[in-house]
Amino acid sequence: MKILFLIIGLGVGFGGGVFWGVHHPAQASQIATDEERRFLEMQVKVTEAIKSKLDQLASRQSQAAKGPGSGFVSGGSASGPDPEIASLRDQQDHQLQQLQNRLNQLGK
pLDDT digits over 9-41, tens only? Predict the structure, then answer.
């Protein structure tokens, strides 16, 4: 019985939203633009957080490579961060740039 009411409520809500959107296209467009802008702003924050964590990880790896024990016995590890981490960081930079461009198109 509950599921039936939930399905009916979902149908009425969806139908009401479509009806309102058809009869008020300018306001519906504005709501959609605001919603997309908020989503992009949150996505930028998440991308920046991921990028900062990748930067921290890369700097820790480069510090560990320069630290004690980086001689013949330890295997002489590479002096830079892991190439996969660098690749992920570059991807995050690219995604961040795309998000900023899209936000600029929306006209903060």
Answer: 999 999 999 999 999 999 999 999 999 999 999
The answer to whether residue 2 is domain-embedded is no
The C-alpha atoms of residue 100 and residue 79 are separated, in whole angstroms, by 32
Q: Does residue 30 lie in a domain region?
A: no
Q: How many domains does the chain have?
A: 1
Tell me if 78 sits within 8 A of 65, measured CB to CB: yes
Residue-number span of the structural domain to which 58 is assigned: 41-65+78-108
Question: Residue 86 domain-assigned?
Answer: yes
d(CA 39, CA 99): 10
Q: What angle do CA 6, 7, 8 make, to 5 degrees?
A: 90
pTM of the model as a whole: 0.67
Is 73 a member of any domain?
no
Alpha helices in 1-108 (DSSP H): 2-23, 25-66, 83-106
What six digits make up the tokens of 70?
């980086």
